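Q: What residues go here?
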């Protein structure tokens, strides 16, 4: 059997992620890089999964039935692209994602989106633990500034870098965009 192409998984690229109330973030070029990856995957007829967060908290930017939950225009799924809806950070929890990937015989995943230390990190950890060959395109993810456990303010870049460090080598391999392009041809 020939090797299946890598699956591009785009995490939580919803309108609320771009609103000022989401917070101060790093990597302003992440959306451009994600859009280029999507275009490359589509041009090569490779599989794409879009993940959308539907919050259970009424005051969330991702509460159902309001604009924050909608996909951003640049990240609208096509009819033949899979959409996973989740109410927790991890896209594998309470969804059919793992079963769908295995039923389709997909083994390699390329994960991008936001936020690096939340839904991206949670999903990547599960993917690695479930035995998928997992890559994270660090330049196609972003994080928001956050206080650490001890109350010290951490910049969005620090949060992003620590999250990538948590993932690299244990749950996934962190790669650049050019390396990701090479996973689909």
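A:
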């Amino acid at each position: 059997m020939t090797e299946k192409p890598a699956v591009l998984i785009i995490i939580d690229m919803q309108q609320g992620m771009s609103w000022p109330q989401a917070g101060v973030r790093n990597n302003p070029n992440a959306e451009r890089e994600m859009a280029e990856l999507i275009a490359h995957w589509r041009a090569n007829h490779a599989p794409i999964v879009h993940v959308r967060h539907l919050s259970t908290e009424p005051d969330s930017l991702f509460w159902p039935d309001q604009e924050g939950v909608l996909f951003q225009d640049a990240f609208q799924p096509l009819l033949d692209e899979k959409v996973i809806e989740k109410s927790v950070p991890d896209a594998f929890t309470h969804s059919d994602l793992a079963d769908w990937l295995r039923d389709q015989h997909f083994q390699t995943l390329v994960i991008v989106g936001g936020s690096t230390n939340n839904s991206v990190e949670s999903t990547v950890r599960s993917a690695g633990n479930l035995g998928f060959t997992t890559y994270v395109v660090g330049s196609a993810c972003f994080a928001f500034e956050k206080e650490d456990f001890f109350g010290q303010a951490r910049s969005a870049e620090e949060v992003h870098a620590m999250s990538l460090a948590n993932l690299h080598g244990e749950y996934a391999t962190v790669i650049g965009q050019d390396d990701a392009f090479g996973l689909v041809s």
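A: Context that may help when evaluating the design: Residues 35 and 61 are 22 Å apart (CA to CA). The longest helix spans residues 30-43.
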